[in-house]
């Protein structure tokens, strides 16, 4: 990723599983989104890039919320603090489910994953 990002450009590194752009509201905040099975997905179409799911900049003063679909910013409603918390809980549940299913019945890998999880609980 370049140090200086240009407004209106979505930078994607599939090699490093990351995307970055400047906040669509124009506030200048650098927004980084990890790519992966439990994070955002990226696809390229003839109409432009799509990043899914939405980008919610809850830690930024602007708290903007939008989708990037087919190269266009599609604005979404601002979330309440309760919605933000519920979204974070749902993300964590999705990650846990994914990795639990991935390592289910894998013996030593399962034990290592449980040990790593316990470090952050």
List the SSEs and their pairings.
Blueprint: E1 11-13, E2 18-22, E3 30-34, E4 41-45, E5 48-56, E6 65-69, E7 72-75, H1 81-103, H2 108-119
Antiparallel strand pairs: 1-2, 2-3, 4-5, 5-6, 6-7
Output the keywords.
121 residues; alpha+beta; 2 domains; three-stranded antiparallel β-sheet; globular
Concise summary:
This protein is of the alpha+beta class.
Structure in words:
With 121 residues, this protein is of the alpha+beta class. The chain has two domains: 11-75, no CATH class; 81-119. It has two helices and seven strands. It has helices at residues 81-103, 108-119; strands spanning 11-13, 18-22, 30-34, 41-45, 48-56, 65-69, 72-75. The strands form two sheets. A four-stranded antiparallel β-sheet has the order 4-5-6-7, with no helix packed on it. It is globular. The mean pLDDT is 90.
- Number of separate domains: 2
| Global Rg | 17 Å
* Biggest β-sheet: strands ordered side by side in the sheet: 4-5-6-7
Biggest sheet features: 4 strands, antiparallel
Number of strands: 7
Reading the helices and strands in chain order gives: EEEEEEEHH
Number of discrete helical segments: 2
Return the average pLDDT rounded to an integer. 90
Q: What structural category characterises the helix and strand content?
A: alpha+beta
Strand content: 25-35%
The percent range for helix content is: 25-40%
- For the terminal residues, how far apart are their CA atoms? 32 Å
Shape category: globular
**Unreliable stretches, pLDDT < 50, 5 or more residues?**
none
